[in-house]
Amino acid sequence: MTRDSRATARASLRVPDSLPDQSGRLVVVTGANSGIGYVTARELARRGAHVVLACRSRERGRDAVERLRAEVPGARAELRVLDLADLASVRRFAEGWDHDRLDLLVNNAGVAMVPFSRTADGFESQFGINYLGPFALTGLLVPHLLASGDPRVVTVSSEGQRFARFDMANLNAERRYRSAFAYVQSKRANLYFAVELQRRADASGLRLRSMAVAPGLTRSNVLTGGADGARGRAYATLVRLLLRVAFRPTPEGARTSLYASTAPGLPGGSYVVPDGPFQLRGDPVLRDRERAVRDSVTARRLWELSERLTGVRYPQVAG
After folding, report:
1. Which entry of 183, 192, 259, 271 is annotated as an active-site residue?
2. pTM to 2 decimals?
3. Active-site residue 183, yes or no?
Protein backbone atom coordinates (compact mmCIF):
# COMPACT_ATOMS: atom_id res chain seq x y z
CA MET A 1 0.00 0.00 0.00
CA THR A 2 1.42 3.39 -0.99
CA ARG A 3 1.68 6.40 1.28
CA ASP A 4 -0.92 8.22 -0.85
CA SER A 5 -3.44 5.34 -0.65
CA ARG A 6 -3.02 5.15 3.11
CA ALA A 7 -3.59 8.89 3.44
CA THR A 8 -6.66 8.75 1.18
CA ALA A 9 -8.22 5.89 3.12
CA ARG A 10 -7.44 7.56 6.44
CA ALA A 11 -9.00 10.85 5.37
CA SER A 12 -12.04 9.30 3.71
CA LEU A 13 -14.01 8.72 6.92
CA ARG A 14 -14.32 9.86 10.49
CA VAL A 15 -16.68 7.74 12.52
CA PRO A 16 -19.33 7.69 13.71
CA ASP A 17 -20.55 11.09 12.48
CA SER A 18 -19.66 10.78 8.79
CA LEU A 19 -20.49 7.20 7.90
CA PRO A 20 -21.57 7.02 4.26
CA ASP A 21 -25.08 5.94 3.41
CA GLN A 22 -25.54 2.19 3.82
CA SER A 23 -28.96 1.84 2.21
CA GLY A 24 -29.39 -1.46 0.40
CA ARG A 25 -26.52 -3.28 2.14
CA LEU A 26 -27.16 -6.65 3.79
CA VAL A 27 -24.97 -7.05 6.86
CA VAL A 28 -24.27 -9.77 9.44
CA VAL A 29 -22.66 -8.76 12.75
CA THR A 30 -21.78 -11.60 15.11
CA GLY A 31 -22.03 -11.05 18.84
CA ALA A 32 -24.28 -8.07 18.17
CA ASN A 33 -26.38 -8.26 21.34
CA SER A 34 -23.95 -6.09 23.33
CA GLY A 35 -20.72 -4.12 23.30
CA ILE A 36 -18.88 -3.24 20.12
CA GLY A 37 -21.03 -5.61 18.09
CA TYR A 38 -24.24 -3.91 19.13
CA VAL A 39 -22.89 -0.42 18.39
CA THR A 40 -21.60 -1.59 15.00
CA ALA A 41 -24.98 -3.07 14.09
CA ARG A 42 -26.88 -0.03 15.37
CA GLU A 43 -24.79 2.52 13.47
CA LEU A 44 -24.94 0.55 10.23
CA ALA A 45 -28.73 0.29 10.64
CA ARG A 46 -28.90 4.01 11.39
CA ARG A 47 -27.33 4.65 7.98
CA GLY A 48 -29.85 2.40 6.22
CA ALA A 49 -28.31 -1.09 6.19
CA HIS A 50 -30.41 -4.21 6.75
CA VAL A 51 -28.60 -5.73 9.71
CA VAL A 52 -28.72 -9.33 10.92
CA LEU A 53 -27.74 -9.63 14.58
CA ALA A 54 -26.12 -13.05 14.91
CA CYS A 55 -26.29 -13.94 18.62
CA ARG A 56 -25.75 -17.04 20.71
CA SER A 57 -28.67 -16.31 23.06
CA ARG A 58 -32.07 -15.92 21.45
CA GLU A 59 -33.37 -14.02 24.47
CA ARG A 60 -30.49 -11.52 24.62
CA GLY A 61 -30.56 -11.17 20.86
CA ARG A 62 -34.27 -10.43 20.89
CA ASP A 63 -33.72 -7.75 23.56
CA ALA A 64 -30.95 -6.21 21.45
CA VAL A 65 -33.14 -6.04 18.34
CA GLU A 66 -35.90 -4.36 20.33
CA ARG A 67 -33.42 -1.88 21.81
CA LEU A 68 -31.95 -1.13 18.38
CA ARG A 69 -35.37 -0.50 16.86
CA ALA A 70 -36.23 1.82 19.74
CA GLU A 71 -33.00 3.79 19.27
CA VAL A 72 -33.26 3.81 15.47
CA PRO A 73 -36.94 4.05 14.49
CA GLY A 74 -37.56 2.35 11.16
CA ALA A 75 -34.35 0.30 11.37
CA ARG A 76 -34.23 -2.90 9.35
CA ALA A 77 -32.88 -5.42 11.84
CA GLU A 78 -33.44 -9.11 12.48
CA LEU A 79 -32.14 -11.76 14.83
CA ARG A 80 -30.61 -15.09 13.85
CA VAL A 81 -29.15 -17.53 16.35
CA LEU A 82 -25.46 -18.40 15.99
CA ASP A 83 -23.21 -20.20 18.48
CA LEU A 84 -19.58 -20.04 17.35
CA ALA A 85 -18.69 -22.66 19.95
CA ASP A 86 -20.65 -25.25 17.97
CA LEU A 87 -19.82 -25.89 14.31
CA ALA A 88 -23.23 -27.48 13.83
CA SER A 89 -24.79 -24.13 14.78
CA VAL A 90 -22.45 -22.36 12.36
CA ARG A 91 -23.57 -24.69 9.56
CA ARG A 92 -27.25 -24.20 10.41
CA PHE A 93 -26.80 -20.43 10.26
CA ALA A 94 -25.16 -20.59 6.84
CA GLU A 95 -27.63 -23.14 5.47
CA GLY A 96 -30.51 -20.96 6.65
CA TRP A 97 -29.29 -17.83 4.84
CA ASP A 98 -32.25 -16.96 2.61
CA HIS A 99 -31.32 -13.51 1.33
CA ASP A 100 -30.08 -13.23 -2.24
CA ARG A 101 -26.59 -12.13 -1.16
CA LEU A 102 -24.48 -10.86 1.73
CA ASP A 103 -22.63 -7.56 1.40
CA LEU A 104 -20.77 -7.39 4.71
CA LEU A 105 -19.81 -9.91 7.38
CA VAL A 106 -18.42 -8.52 10.62
CA ASN A 107 -16.73 -11.28 12.63
CA ASN A 108 -17.04 -9.51 15.97
CA ALA A 109 -18.07 -12.11 18.57
CA GLY A 110 -15.49 -13.47 20.95
CA VAL A 111 -14.45 -14.31 24.48
CA ALA A 112 -11.44 -13.11 26.46
CA MET A 113 -9.20 -14.81 29.02
CA VAL A 114 -11.82 -17.30 30.15
CA PRO A 115 -11.16 -20.34 32.36
CA PHE A 116 -10.17 -23.45 30.43
CA SER A 117 -13.01 -25.21 28.65
CA ARG A 118 -13.67 -26.84 25.31
CA THR A 119 -16.26 -26.15 22.65
CA ALA A 120 -18.88 -28.62 21.47
CA ASP A 121 -16.34 -29.85 18.92
CA GLY A 122 -13.52 -30.26 21.43
CA PHE A 123 -11.53 -27.12 20.69
CA GLU A 124 -10.07 -24.90 23.42
CA SER A 125 -12.79 -22.29 23.83
CA GLN A 126 -10.87 -19.15 22.89
CA PHE A 127 -9.28 -20.75 19.83
CA GLY A 128 -12.63 -22.27 18.88
CA ILE A 129 -14.90 -19.26 19.44
CA ASN A 130 -12.57 -16.41 18.49
CA TYR A 131 -10.96 -18.05 15.47
CA LEU A 132 -12.22 -21.42 14.21
CA GLY A 133 -15.90 -20.44 14.43
CA PRO A 134 -15.42 -17.29 12.33
CA PHE A 135 -13.16 -19.18 9.89
CA ALA A 136 -15.91 -21.74 9.33
CA LEU A 137 -18.69 -19.15 9.19
CA THR A 138 -16.89 -17.03 6.61
CA GLY A 139 -16.11 -20.02 4.42
CA LEU A 140 -19.70 -21.22 4.46
CA LEU A 141 -20.98 -17.72 3.62
CA VAL A 142 -18.49 -17.05 0.80
CA PRO A 143 -20.99 -18.01 -1.95
CA HIS A 144 -23.43 -15.41 -0.62
CA LEU A 145 -20.67 -12.81 -0.27
CA LEU A 146 -19.58 -13.37 -3.86
CA ALA A 147 -23.16 -12.71 -4.98
CA SER A 148 -22.64 -9.12 -3.78
CA GLY A 149 -21.23 -6.39 -5.98
CA ASP A 150 -18.86 -5.20 -3.25
CA PRO A 151 -18.42 -7.86 -0.55
CA ARG A 152 -16.40 -7.23 2.61
CA VAL A 153 -15.35 -9.33 5.58
CA VAL A 154 -14.24 -7.48 8.72
CA THR A 155 -12.62 -9.57 11.44
CA VAL A 156 -12.04 -8.17 14.92
CA SER A 157 -8.54 -8.90 16.21
CA SER A 158 -6.97 -7.12 19.19
CA GLU A 159 -4.09 -4.82 19.99
CA GLY A 160 -3.01 -7.65 22.28
CA GLN A 161 -2.11 -9.84 19.29
CA ARG A 162 1.22 -7.99 19.12
CA PHE A 163 2.30 -9.82 22.27
CA ALA A 164 1.39 -13.33 21.12
CA ARG A 165 4.03 -16.03 20.87
CA PHE A 166 2.24 -17.87 18.10
CA ASP A 167 2.76 -21.57 18.71
CA MET A 168 1.34 -23.75 15.93
CA ALA A 169 1.93 -26.82 18.13
CA ASN A 170 -0.22 -25.47 20.98
CA LEU A 171 -3.09 -23.64 19.31
CA ASN A 172 -5.65 -25.94 20.88
CA ALA A 173 -4.11 -26.06 24.38
CA GLU A 174 -2.52 -29.42 23.69
CA ARG A 175 -0.05 -28.52 26.43
CA ARG A 176 -0.24 -26.03 29.28
CA TYR A 177 -3.19 -23.62 29.22
CA ARG A 178 -2.71 -19.96 30.07
CA SER A 179 -5.82 -17.89 29.46
CA ALA A 180 -4.10 -14.64 28.47
CA PHE A 181 -1.69 -16.47 26.15
CA ALA A 182 -4.55 -18.36 24.50
CA TYR A 183 -6.49 -15.13 24.05
CA VAL A 184 -3.78 -13.11 22.29
CA GLN A 185 -2.86 -16.15 20.21
CA SER A 186 -6.45 -16.49 19.00
CA LYS A 187 -6.47 -12.82 18.10
CA ARG A 188 -3.20 -13.16 16.18
CA ALA A 189 -4.92 -16.00 14.32
CA ASN A 190 -7.74 -13.59 13.40
CA LEU A 191 -5.21 -11.24 11.82
CA TYR A 192 -3.50 -14.06 9.92
CA PHE A 193 -6.92 -15.17 8.66
CA ALA A 194 -8.02 -11.74 7.46
CA VAL A 195 -4.81 -11.13 5.50
CA GLU A 196 -4.62 -14.67 4.08
CA LEU A 197 -8.25 -14.46 2.94
CA GLN A 198 -7.33 -11.32 1.00
CA ARG A 199 -4.26 -12.97 -0.55
CA ARG A 200 -6.39 -15.88 -1.74
CA ALA A 201 -9.18 -13.64 -3.00
CA ASP A 202 -6.64 -11.61 -4.98
CA ALA A 203 -5.07 -14.78 -6.41
CA SER A 204 -8.53 -15.90 -7.53
CA GLY A 205 -9.39 -12.54 -9.08
CA LEU A 206 -12.32 -12.02 -6.69
CA ARG A 207 -13.78 -8.66 -5.69
CA LEU A 208 -13.97 -9.65 -2.05
CA ARG A 209 -12.19 -7.39 0.44
CA SER A 210 -11.04 -8.72 3.81
CA MET A 211 -9.94 -6.42 6.64
CA ALA A 212 -8.90 -6.84 10.26
CA VAL A 213 -9.40 -4.34 13.07
CA ALA A 214 -8.25 -3.76 16.63
CA PRO A 215 -10.74 -1.84 18.78
CA GLY A 216 -8.37 -0.67 21.52
CA LEU A 217 -9.23 -0.77 25.22
CA THR A 218 -13.00 -0.69 25.24
CA ARG A 219 -15.74 -1.16 27.82
CA SER A 220 -17.75 -4.27 26.99
CA ASN A 221 -18.81 -7.51 28.63
CA VAL A 222 -16.07 -9.56 26.95
CA LEU A 223 -14.26 -9.79 30.32
CA THR A 224 -17.38 -10.35 32.41
CA GLY A 225 -19.84 -12.27 30.24
CA GLY A 226 -20.01 -15.94 29.30
CA ALA A 227 -17.58 -18.18 31.18
CA ASP A 228 -16.08 -15.17 32.96
CA GLY A 229 -19.37 -14.75 34.78
CA ALA A 230 -18.50 -17.79 36.90
CA ARG A 231 -15.31 -16.24 38.31
CA GLY A 232 -17.12 -14.77 41.30
CA ARG A 233 -18.10 -11.42 42.77
CA ALA A 234 -14.57 -10.22 43.57
CA TYR A 235 -13.44 -10.74 39.98
CA ALA A 236 -16.52 -8.99 38.58
CA THR A 237 -16.08 -6.01 40.90
CA LEU A 238 -12.39 -5.63 40.04
CA VAL A 239 -12.97 -5.89 36.30
CA ARG A 240 -15.85 -3.40 36.34
CA LEU A 241 -13.63 -0.92 38.20
CA LEU A 242 -10.84 -1.45 35.68
CA LEU A 243 -13.23 -0.98 32.78
CA ARG A 244 -14.55 2.26 34.21
CA VAL A 245 -11.12 3.73 34.95
CA ALA A 246 -8.89 2.54 32.11
CA PHE A 247 -11.15 1.61 29.21
CA ARG A 248 -12.91 3.95 26.81
CA PRO A 249 -16.66 3.99 26.10
CA THR A 250 -18.00 1.23 23.85
CA PRO A 251 -18.91 3.53 20.90
CA GLU A 252 -15.25 4.55 20.73
CA GLY A 253 -14.21 0.92 20.42
CA ALA A 254 -16.58 0.37 17.50
CA ARG A 255 -14.92 3.06 15.40
CA THR A 256 -12.37 0.79 13.76
CA SER A 257 -15.03 -1.80 12.89
CA LEU A 258 -17.25 0.88 11.38
CA TYR A 259 -14.33 2.36 9.47
CA ALA A 260 -13.33 -0.98 7.99
CA SER A 261 -16.97 -1.76 7.17
CA THR A 262 -17.75 1.46 5.33
CA ALA A 263 -14.68 3.47 4.20
CA PRO A 264 -15.15 3.70 0.41
CA GLY A 265 -11.55 3.39 -0.74
CA LEU A 266 -10.17 1.09 1.91
CA PRO A 267 -7.89 -1.54 0.30
CA GLY A 268 -8.43 -5.21 1.01
CA GLY A 269 -5.91 -6.64 3.45
CA SER A 270 -5.95 -3.50 5.60
CA TYR A 271 -5.39 -3.67 9.34
CA VAL A 272 -7.22 -0.80 11.06
CA VAL A 273 -6.18 0.23 14.57
CA PRO A 274 -6.57 3.27 16.86
CA ASP A 275 -3.83 5.79 16.14
CA GLY A 276 -2.99 6.54 19.80
CA PRO A 277 -0.13 5.13 21.89
CA PHE A 278 0.07 1.32 21.84
CA GLN A 279 -3.08 1.24 19.65
CA LEU A 280 -5.22 1.65 22.75
CA ARG A 281 -7.35 4.65 21.72
CA GLY A 282 -7.72 7.26 19.01
CA ASP A 283 -8.96 7.65 15.43
CA PRO A 284 -8.85 4.72 12.99
CA VAL A 285 -5.59 4.44 11.09
CA LEU A 286 -4.07 1.80 8.81
CA ARG A 287 -1.11 -0.18 10.12
CA ASP A 288 0.95 -2.35 7.77
CA ARG A 289 4.07 -2.94 9.86
CA GLU A 290 2.69 -5.84 11.89
CA ARG A 291 4.72 -9.04 11.55
CA ALA A 292 1.54 -11.06 11.11
CA VAL A 293 0.52 -8.98 8.09
CA ARG A 294 3.72 -9.98 6.28
CA ASP A 295 4.06 -13.56 7.56
CA SER A 296 2.37 -15.41 4.71
CA VAL A 297 4.06 -18.72 5.57
CA THR A 298 2.44 -18.99 9.00
CA ALA A 299 -0.86 -17.66 7.67
CA ARG A 300 -0.92 -20.36 4.99
CA ARG A 301 -0.10 -23.12 7.49
CA LEU A 302 -2.82 -21.89 9.83
CA TRP A 303 -5.35 -21.78 6.98
CA GLU A 304 -4.61 -25.37 5.99
CA LEU A 305 -4.85 -26.52 9.61
CA SER A 306 -8.14 -24.66 10.02
CA GLU A 307 -9.63 -26.42 7.00
CA ARG A 308 -8.71 -29.80 8.50
CA LEU A 309 -10.05 -28.96 11.97
CA THR A 310 -13.37 -27.45 10.84
CA GLY A 311 -13.98 -29.47 7.69
CA VAL A 312 -14.76 -26.18 5.92
CA ARG A 313 -12.96 -25.35 2.68
CA TYR A 314 -13.15 -22.32 0.42
CA PRO A 315 -13.44 -23.81 -3.08
CA GLN A 316 -14.01 -20.39 -4.67
CA VAL A 317 -10.77 -19.03 -3.15
CA ALA A 318 -7.49 -20.30 -4.58
CA GLY A 319 -4.72 -21.60 -2.32
Report:
1. 183
2. 0.88
3. yes
